[in-house]
């Protein structure tokens, strides 16, 4: 009966069932437990040992051989030891038995308890990582994400190559025909406009009577727009009044007096637009302290302008520049001053009276060339 209990513990321990030595034997349960265990848990060599032990147990029951009982017990121990070694490589049992000796049930049960505890604590060791599997198929493309923030502006790139030359423009209209029948007269007129005496080999009939007037309009230092702007003002008022000839302003800059701009000749006589004699070149340029014979107080139409008598000049009686007092070249008003004359006077103050701010609006003297 002890051997039956021992065999039952072996089978129950290996099959993972919970039982004690006092468990009741049952043929059906024994058969299912053994074969389930063999199919699912125990390697073939160990299963063979278990079956051999069962066979020997059956023979001992039939023939009552005591020695076979010991063999069955030892085979059972070896079977359990094999299972333990299979799981842990080695498990030491507390009791060792020799062949042909009587086995104490307590010692056998102690060995079974040791083996059962080892089996319950079997750990599955993690094996080495296997090779990487084949790459899976690409997934479907995700949706378009939101647009990112605008980046910083890049640096200015290098200058591009020069473009191809454009097509030639259409030819302009032909200018007016020039009457060359009196070429000599045209040359004389050009010299007269420049205020330069013509060459002696030209018989130019140059008039020595010249016209002077004072502008009806008023201008501040910025309005004049330089010496060229002043000359244009005089020419516009002369043209509007129907006066013939070229007219320039009696006006100087710091480094440019009227004697270098206006063509004065000793034979010239200057008249106002109302026919009144003003003076010859010596009087105008104050040779030997000479004064004017009459003030320049008539406009291009022969009328006396109303309002201020002041006239921008920046010019000394000799026709030279009065210096830096020129409204910054007659182009500005802020913070600058300039010399003015009085159109009512005939002494030196007709051209050099006083200095004042360029922000005021005064007249200009205009001389025919």
Instruction: Return the structural class.
Output: alpha+beta
Helical coverage, percent range? 25-40%
Distance between the termini: 160 Å
Strand order of the largest sheet: 2-8-1-3-4
Order of helices and strands: HHHHHHEHHEEEHEHEEE
User: What would you report as the Rg, rounded to the nearest angstrom?
Assistant: 68 Å
Largest sheet: 5 strands, mixed
- Count of all domains: 2
Any idea what the shape is? rod-shaped
CATH class of the largest domain: Alpha Beta
Strand portion, in percent?
A: 5-15%
Unreliable spans = 1-42, 63-89
CATH architectural name of the largest domain: Roll
Number of helices: 10
SS elements, strand count: 8
CATH superfamily of the largest domain: Mannose-Binding Protein A, subunit A
CATH fold call of the largest domain: Mannose-Binding Protein A, Chain A
What is the average per-residue confidence, as pLDDT, rounded to a whole number? Answer: 76
């Amino acid at each position: 009966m002890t051997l039956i209990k021992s065999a039952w513990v072996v089978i129950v321990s290996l099959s993972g069932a919970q039982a004690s030595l006092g468990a009741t034997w049952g043929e059906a349960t024994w058969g299912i437990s053994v074969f389930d265990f063999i199919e699912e848990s125990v390697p073939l060599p160990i299963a063979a040992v278990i079956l051999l032990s069962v066979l020997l147990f059956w023979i001992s029951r039939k023939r009552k051989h005591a020695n076979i009982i010991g063999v069955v017990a030892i085979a059972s121990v070896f079977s359990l030891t094999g299972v333990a070694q299979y799981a842990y490589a080695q498990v030491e049992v507390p009791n060792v038995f020799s062949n042909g000796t009587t086995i104490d049930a307590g010692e056998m049960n102690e060995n079974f308890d040791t083996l059962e505890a080892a089996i319950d604590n079997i750990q599955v060791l993690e094996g080495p990582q296997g090779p990487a599997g084949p790459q899976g198929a690409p997934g479907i493309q995700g949706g378009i994400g939101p647009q990112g923030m605008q980046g910083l502006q890049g640096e200015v790139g290098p200058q591009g190559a020069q473009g191809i030359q454009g097509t030639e423009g259409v030819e302009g209209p032909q200018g007016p025909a020039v009457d060359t029948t009196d070429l000599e007269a045209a040359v004389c007129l050009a010299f007269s406009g420049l205020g330069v005496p013509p060459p002696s080999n030209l018989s130019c009939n140059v008039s020595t009577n010249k016209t002077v007037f004072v502008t009806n309009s008023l201008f501040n230092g910025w309005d004049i727009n330089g010496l060229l702007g002043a000359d244009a003002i005089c020419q516009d008022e002369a043209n509007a009044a129907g006066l013939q000839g070229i007219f320039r302003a009696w006006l100087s800059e710091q480094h440019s007096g009227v004697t270098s701009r206006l063509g004065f000749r000793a034979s010239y006589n200057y008249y106002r637009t109302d026919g009144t004699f003003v003076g010859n070149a010596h009087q105008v340029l104050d040779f030997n302290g000479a004064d004017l014979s009459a003030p320049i107080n008539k406009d291009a139409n022969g009328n006396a302008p109303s309002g201020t008598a002041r006239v921008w000049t920046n010019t000394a009686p000799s026709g030279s520049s009065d210096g830096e007092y020129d409204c910054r070249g007659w182009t500005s008003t802020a913070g600058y001053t300039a010399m003015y004359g009085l159109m009512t006077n005939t002494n030196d103050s007709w051209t050099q009276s006083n200095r004042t701010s360029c922000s005021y609006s005064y007249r200009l003297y205009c001389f025919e060339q």
